[in-house]
Amino acid sequence: MSKLTLGSYPHMLGFEQLERLLERTAKTGNEGYPPFNIEQTSDLSYRITLAVAGFAEEDLSITVEDRQLVIRGRQSDDDAERMFLHRGIAARQFQRSFVLAEGVEVGEAAMENGLLHVDLTRSRPETVVQTIQIKKG
Fold first, then answer.
1. pTM surpassing 0.70?
2. What count of Cα atoms within 13 Å lies in the side-chain half-sphere of residue 95?
3. Tell me: domain 31-122, CATH 2.60.40.790, correct?
4. How many CA atoms lie within 13 A of 112 on its CB side?
5. Are 23 and 100 in contact (CB under 8 A)?
6. Other beta carbons within 10 Å of 116
7. Residue 112: its H or E element
8. Of the residues 12, 46, 64, 136, which has the fewest C-beta atoms closer than 10 A?
9. What pLDDT is recorded for position 83?
């Protein structure tokens, strides 16, 4: 049995890049930490919210490369001299990745009450009608 790909459909031309994006998304390795929400804030905007309690702004980095939003968290090792009798608050590093569609731009990011908010906006696509002339043979 052969694997069906977008290239297998004769009416879907040029979607190979979309297929690669889907494969890349499946391989991002996102675990369940930290938990996050994605909400649609308007017809053309979204907000990703990550629960990053215990992380300071300088412990977090947000990058966009090749249409992939990557949010990383790494806390400093200042707990070395502290002795915990119980440690129930996770202090581990993380990486969350989100593949962005064409035309989606990352806006501002803000920290509020242990939550990191990252705003995204999508540009309205232009409607293009093109007439192709037929050459006489």
1. yes
2. 9
3. yes
4. 6
5. no
6. 22
7. strand 104-112
8. 136
9. 85
